[in-house]
Amino acid sequence: MVLNWKYGGLALGLVFFLAVLLVKPIGVSTQFVILDGILWDMQNPDIVTQADDGAYTSTNAYLAKSDGKYAKAVANPVNYSFIFVGAMMLGALISSILRNSVPKGERMVPAIWRANYGGNVLKRWLVAFAGGFIVLYGARLAGGCTSGHMMSGMSQTAISGYIFALGAFLAAFPTALYMFKEEG
Amino acid sequence: MMTIVLAIVIGAAFGFVLDRIGATNPNWIGRMLNLTNLHLMKTILLAIGVASVLTFGGQMLGLVDVGHMSVKTAYVGVFIGGLMLGLGWAMSGFCPGTGVCALAVGRIDALFFVAGGLLGAAAYMLSYPVWKDLGVLEGDKITLGAIPGADYPAAFPDLQGDLAGLAIGAAFIVIAFILPRRFSRKKAPAGTQPAE
């Protein structure tokens, strides 16, 4: 059962606040790049390199940007932001076990999709895959996602957060209204 | 070592709460974005408001270190990327954080979302120089008002940034209360309502 918005909103707000109080604002999408970098570097160890002075860099311009900030995270995966995303998965898993886990049919194809497009799993998985591609490409172009730009950004009065939220909802509302006419 | 412990504690709390508010469930995302059930929108607006009021209120009282803020750069690509994220978010019902959490709670479609995401992020890593050459990644780390103790340039330099943050936070909370759960008069389908 989903928490009433008053409790849920308070709890979520407290988590975002605690993150800023204790460490730094929450963000997630960068870690997709870090995991890509780790996998890529496993295939080809020349991707991320360390100079004699200890600085990390990469043959990939994106990993090398900002003085090799991402290259360093790829070389040292046990860092705050990467572990954070792993811990998020653990937290969500614990919550789902405590509240009764997701029913089997729903795991394959969610109700809203089923109500509009039927139970064909391949169709749903293909769209989920394409959606993931577009979401992460967009998030990296924007320099953040729903958590980093929209939630953390707007709660710090960052102009980038407002610009991002405007773009995201400008695309998301019409897309969902067009694609999901049945509520499910 | 301490930072890793904090990563585990705060990360787990974040994942736990995302699951409890329905954000790991593509049905709740879809119903928010097709405007049939705005419950999750109310949750998110309240959360932004609460975080904002606590952050800026804490700064004004000297309890929150301004140095912990991290404002991202505003540039044209933020808007283009935002549009893309919105499109994929509505299509799939996942965003990066809720996608990995949905995978963790056993949603198989989220596995495909995360796989697509890894490929999309890789595609950006390769195409990054193109965007850079276009000049759409240039900008500044701007905040609404001038925040005392931080050196971010302000969109409105005469505006006191921490007060503005408090006011906007309060506005988010008010909107969260005012926003109706449903626009349509049609009754919500069974099992789609939150606990009271």
From TrEMBL, chain A:
Where in the cell is the protein located? Cell inner membrane
Tell me the membrane topology, using the record's own terms: Multi-pass membrane protein
Q: Does the keyword Transport apply?
A: yes
- Mind telling me which GO cellular component terms the entry cites? plasma membrane
Q: Which domain of life is it from?
A: Bacteria
Q: Which residues cross the membrane?
A: 80-100, 121-139, 159-180
Instruction: Say where the protein is mainly found.
Output: membrane
- Assigned keywords, A-Z: Cell inner membrane, Cell membrane, Membrane, Transmembrane, Transmembrane helix, Transport
Q: Which family does it belong to?
A: Belongs to the TsuA/YedE (TC 9.B.102) family.
| Protein name in UniProt | Uncharacterized protein
Automatic annotation (TrEMBL), chain B:
Q: Which residues cross the membrane?
A: 6-23, 44-64, 76-103, 110-131, 163-179
- What InterPro entries does the annotation carry? Sulf_transp_TsuA/YedE (IPR007272)
Q: Which keywords has UniProt assigned to this entry? A: Membrane, Transmembrane, Transmembrane helix
Name-wise, this protein is Uncharacterized protein
Query: From which organism does this entry originate?
Result: Rhodovulum adriaticum
